Amino acid sequence: MTSILRSPQALQLTLALIKPDAVAHPLILEAVHQQILSNKFLIVRMRELLWRKEDCQKFYREHEDSVVSASREIAAFFPDFSEQRWYEEEEPQLRCGPVHYSPEGGIHFAAPAGGLGPA
Predict the structure, then answer these.
(1) Which of 78, 74, 93 is nearest to 10 (CA)?
(2) Which of these, 14, 64, 81, 91, could form a disulfide with 69 (CB 3.0-4.6 Å)?
(3) Cis-peptide, bond into residue 103, ω within 30° of zero
(4) Where in the numbering of this chain does the Nucleoside diphosphate kinase-like domain appear (predicted)?
């Protein structure tokens, strides 16, 4: 699937967490995934993990509705992800397109010049 975004505004990062009861049912998980895509969200990273109850409690206890909290949460789930690098390098490419979606990887990526595949 290829699409072209032409947005004058910078894209924003959003962290989506899908709870275990949805993940346990493949049809529900696929419906959630399709809902994310149909609402024109770009999936730039995806990861499955299993947390202990204590980890979940700590995560939600520290959760605040702020940009600082969002950055901290993204770092917790994607330790190799550089938010600064994403905003400097990936965000402009994703915003201006063309953008491809990889069903195998479950993520969107900016189309490299002259070919297909993640940049």
Answers:
(1) 93
(2) 64
(3) no
(4) 11-85
